[in-house]
Amino acid sequence: MFGPGSTLPGQIAAVRRLLHAGLREQVTRGPLDSASPSLLQFVVAHFCGLQHEEMLALFGNAGGQFIDHETVAAGPSHRMEFSPAQLFRRAVALGAVEIVLAHNHPSGIAQPSADDLASTRRVVRDAKLLGIVVRDHLIVGGNAVFSMSRAGLL
């Protein structure tokens, strides 16, 4: 926190948390749209500085509005273990019918790997069986974001 005895890294971390909270607030007020600048800023800020991979799920309701977000997987810098069952349990618990997935590449390269493409296709297929639509899967490398939806890969 701020004040006497606080360190510069601590102050920077506090400011970062405040900025991220502000970005989240902007995302919660609008539709779950992976092309939204607010959502893209939120996702990039979420992954900023991570040296390991994480998968973030953003959940939306039947009206297309943001419900919540959750980290659903994590792993070392080059691979993570991802459980679609955990993702779908959370979606069902929230009453979500739309999901935007996002994960980071600590290498800074915002391009999907063959494994990313294959696992995303399986998740999209399985989600349909549950009446859930995967709207997009974003790959974040540094400040760059690759959209599988916009690239026609979903």
- The overall strand count is 6
Helix/strand-derived category reads alpha+beta
Q: How many angstroms separate the termini?
A: 43 Å
| Sheet with most strands | 6 strands, mixed
* Basic shape: globular
What is the percentage of strand-forming residues? 25-35%
What count of helical segments does DSSP give? 4
Strand order of the largest sheet: 3-2-1-4-5-6
What's the mean pLDDT score?
87
Give the low-confidence spans: none
Gyration radius, rounded = 16 Å
Strand-and-helix sequence, N→C?
A: HHEEEHEHEE
Present the secondary structure layout.
Elements: H1 8-28, H2 37-47, E1 53-60, E2 66-75, E3 81-82, H3 84-94, E4 98-104, H4 114-129, E5 133-141, E6 144-147
Helix pairs in contact: 1-2
Report on this model:
This protein has four helices and six strands. The chain has helices at 8-28, 37-47, 84-94, 114-129; strands at residues 53-60, 66-75, 81-82, 98-104, 133-141, 144-147. A six-stranded mixed sheet has the order 3-2-1-4-5-6, with helices on both faces. A hairpin with a 5-residue loop joins β1 and β2 (66-75). α1 (8-28) packs antiparallel against α2. The protein is globular. The chain starts with 7 loop residues before the first helix and ends in a 7-residue tail after the last strand.
